[in-house]
## 1
Amino acid sequence: MSGLGGGRLRIGDVTVGGRVLTAPMTGVTDLPFRRAASRLGAAYVSTEMVACADFACGRPDVVRRAAVGDGLPLMVVQLLGADPATVAQGVRLATTAGADLIDLNMGCPSKEVVGAACGAALMRTPELAERIVAAAVEATDRPVTVKMRLGWDTHTACDLALRAERAGAAALTVHGRTRNQFYTGRADWSAVAAVKAAVRLPVIVNGDILDAADATEALRLSGADAVMLGRGVYGRPWAAAGIDAALAGAPWAEPDAEPRLGIVLDHMADALAFYAEPHGLRLFRKHLGWYVERAPWPAAAEVRRTAKARLCRLDSASEVERALVALWASEAVTEAAKGPALALGSAPSYNAPVSAGGAA
Ligand SMILES: Cc1cc2nc3c(=O)[nH]c(=O)nc-3n(C[C@H](O)[C@H](O)[C@H](O)COP(=O)(O)O)c2cc1C
């Protein structure tokens, strides 16, 4: 089955209401983030990766990663595992929890994950990867998708893609880097074209896509059916919806300062309700930092850094809220609101994941 075109993507029996998907990101795409992005129009936002073995044991933090949220257009759960039976168990749990789509992680490069034979390590054991996909497909009536890289150190994605297709996968996402590249260099969108040519499944191209121009170029070079944004959504939960609109030819601009403040406050309130203070506030600090770095102000990087550091030192949510409102009302912001928004990508901190276990 292939993409539908016309701004939608068909994955098995599921129609995704857009062609710009938001990637699974550990420590980022938790339920409060997914709700924020969905409120802003994102058609598809995946959970963080959920380790099947820990999920099956009921480890609370892992179960929380798979939390279903009201108001999400789609519940996409990403699972991680190296044993077909354990993955099948995770798939059954995710299905019972209400997943609409189940994605299998075969791209995480972290030492801890590949050391457990999971994630990108499966690109070196394609027979096992194929059995995992088959076990997952067998365990659910939901479409199963696979997210992979171009290979371990050479481009072997076509082999894994064909195996995944044979085992019943409904779509594939390819991050245009090898495992050994981690997050270095540029994602190779052209290399994803070989995967698109090899399979009949919808293919989603991923890596270094920030704006509508990138998305258009990634689609052109790869021939893929859709794009997936990862770090481009830092401090921009509206990005997928906006780029989707731009691809469909609709006028779209980055939100001004004022609506952004509302988005930050709503996101923070949801994070605090979900995790409770003080944990919720600690977890929200990274988002706070990204919102400030990417706010549409004329302020120099140094001013942003100071503002961010000050916000991140505050210990209570009410203090953070007051400080945010004051910051947004400060001259720098009101001046910027009259002028053009910050250019996309001009002030991101494009941090690759730092914790070995925490990211893919
Ligand atoms: C902080 C962080 C966490 C990530 N966590 C996951 C994950 O849980 N599962 C996964 O498949 N990929 C994960 N990734 C990889 C992204 O989904 C994506 O493939 C990668 O960042 C490339 O896209 P980008 O250049 O648009 O960021 C993570 C990436 C980052 C930066």
## 2
Amino acid sequence: MQTSEVLRAWKKILQGESPSLSIEITRECPLRCPGCYAYDADHLGGGKTLRDLSDYKGDELVENILQVVDRYQPLHLSLVGGDPLVRYRELEQLVPRIVDRGIHLQIVTSAFRPFPIAWTQNPRVNVVVSIDGLQPEHDIRRSPATYQRILSNIAGQKVTVHCTITGQMMKRPGYLDEFVQFWSDKQEVKKIWFSIFTPQMGDSLPEILSSDERAQVITDLNHLRKLYPKLDMPPEMIQQFATPPASPKDCIFAQTTTSISADLTSFIGPCQFGGKPDCSQCGCAASMGLAAVGDYKLAGIIPVKSIFDLSFRVGRSRAKRQQTPLVSEKPFQILQ
Ligand code: SF4
Ligand code: SF4
């Protein structure tokens, strides 16, 4: 991020606005991944689920998304789902119009179908392909977006590979090494990111890592980043997996990102996971990345997080005075 963009983000926080926006642009997805948080019964706080929402298609979707974007004026926009490529025709119209607004755009997909090469040629667009483990495990979890299909659909592209590490993967020593080696070798891959599976409170799932497995992830990633330059995770970020934010209020990512679901009116809180995520076991790469920024000490003394917390309080009281709550109140309603 450039200095001018950091200053723009800071200005938005001081105004009580979110620098980052995430939109579930469709309720549909051809996959049925185990552990998917988007279709969890509590994702939208209970009651309606993502599949129950009315979503949009065609020109109506394009214009409504642009209206939301123009209202929030984010610096960074994530388009998620469901799978955003379910609406690839609408995306063909949306991507250039979003990028023309000077916004950094991230499209998170299973790559179950091909997409225009112009997207990944644009330096403001990052297509993130979710790949959950090596082929035997991935193909079971994420069919029909199998390895074969992904490799065919990303041919000639430059994408970021994102893998959510599960407890099952960590039962086999060397698993992450094999994964990074395989995808590092692909010229279509420019970066590799890892998250760790984040459970909801009270979950008991095979995807959840033990504390020893979480420690092993940190050791493995610190080792692998030296061998594979495409593993784009600095050590300060990797180390955050050991001490995730204590609560949504302590999570810079949750506080700086507004998440909106497919009806374009429902907020998702306290973060993009929705429901009641177990922050003590959070493995979200974005949260860890921003936590690492928060730990950075300006002039070697003042943690960025303390400046952020102060700025956030200033921004919220200003937004309340002006009665323009652009930052979602929902995370804090849930906490109260
Ligand atoms: S591709 Fe994403 S949204 Fe679709 S089922 Fe899998 S995790 Fe859920
Ligand atoms: S679970 Fe959500 S709110 Fe909690 S630390 Fe992770 S990203 Fe932040």
